């Protein structure tokens, strides 16, 4: 059955498209929901005019969104979360947290469903998170997740790489004693006995 689509149907067609579809799909889904109509000449003409209007509106939305995208991508947002000494979060940072930060940038509420985050963030660090501003315009918001005390992933890495943090002596070698401590030890208590001398008997 040939139909004209009156609305966008994701994965199937866009508004104004004329396509052959299965009769059952048309009768049971598209036609009752007024997503499409049988492709009569009058309906085709009306749908084409509507498609032109929709394209103009979409271009206006995309033009405005491109300006918003520049503002979003120029910003770095900070999200504070509880984290352990290794940088793992007690919990996670999700789409709602990021949407709130994007809303603060653009000055209006932002839908968390427009945040493209495959899985929640579970470690301190810096992340580039895509956000859909319109159907055709996507921006990347730069998110920095830090600990409640301001600790960053870089701080944890620096601590882990700091020298002298309990490094074991190589196998087969005894640990080297602190020379300063040894010198101090020889200067405390009774005078040292010279080699070959024995203490006088009482």
Describe the structure.
The structure is a single chain. With 202 residues, the chain is α+β, with helices and mostly antiparallel strands. The protein folds into two domains: 2-61, Ribosomal Protein L9, domain 1; 75-161, Ribosomal protein L9, C-terminal domain (Ribosomal Protein L9, domain 2), CATH 3.10.430.100. The chain contains five helices and eight strands. The protein has helices at 23-30, 41-74, 95-106, 153-161, 179-186; strands at 2-5, 18-20, 36-38, 76-81, 88-93, 121-123, 125-132, 138-147. The strands form three sheets. Strands 2-1-3 form a three-stranded antiparallel β-sheet, covered by helices on one side. Strands 4-8-7 form a three-stranded mixed β-sheet. Strand 7 (125-132) and strand 8 form a beta hairpin. The longest helix is centred in the N-terminal third of the chain and has 34 residues, at 41-74. The protein starts with a strand and ends in a 16-residue tail after the last helix. Mean pLDDT is 82; it is low at 166-202.
Lay out the secondary structure.
Layout: E1 2-5, E2 18-20, H1 23-30, E3 36-38, H2 41-74, E4 76-81, E5 88-93, H3 95-106, E6 121-123, E7 125-132, E8 138-147, H4 153-161, H5 179-186
Parallel strand pairs: 4-8
Antiparallel strand pairs: 1-2, 1-3, 5-6, 7-8
Keywords, please?
8 strands, single chain, 2 domains, alpha+beta, Ribosomal Protein L9, domain 2, 3-stranded mixed beta sheet, Ribosomal Protein L9, domain 1, 202 residues, 3-stranded antiparallel beta sheet
């Amino acid at each position: 059955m040939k139909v004209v689509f009156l609305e966008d149907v994701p994965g199937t067609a866009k508004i104004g498209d004329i396509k052959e579809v299965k009769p059952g799909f048309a009768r049971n889904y598209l036609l009752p929901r007024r997503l499409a109509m049988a492709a009569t000449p009058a309906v085709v003409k009306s749908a084409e005019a509507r498609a032109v209007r929709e394209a103009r509106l979409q271009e206006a939305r995309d033009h405005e969104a491109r300006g918003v995208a520049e503002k979003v991508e120029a910003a770095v947002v900070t999200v504070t979360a509880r984290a352990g000494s290794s940088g793992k979060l007690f919990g996670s940072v999700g789409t709602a947290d990021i949407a709130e930060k994007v809303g603060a940038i653009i000055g209006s509420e932002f839908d968390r469903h427009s945040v493209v985050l495959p899985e929640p963030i579970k470690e301190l660090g810096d992340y580039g998170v895509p956000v859909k501003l319109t159907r055709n315009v996507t921006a990347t918001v730069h998110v920095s997740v830090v600990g409640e005390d301001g600790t960053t992933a870089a701080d944890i890495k620096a601590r882990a790489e700091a020298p002298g943090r309990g490094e074991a002596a190589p196998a087969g070698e005894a640990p080297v004693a602190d020379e300063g401590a040894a010198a101090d030890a020889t200067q405390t208590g009774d005078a040292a006995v010279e080699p070959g001398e024995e203490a006088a008997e009482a």
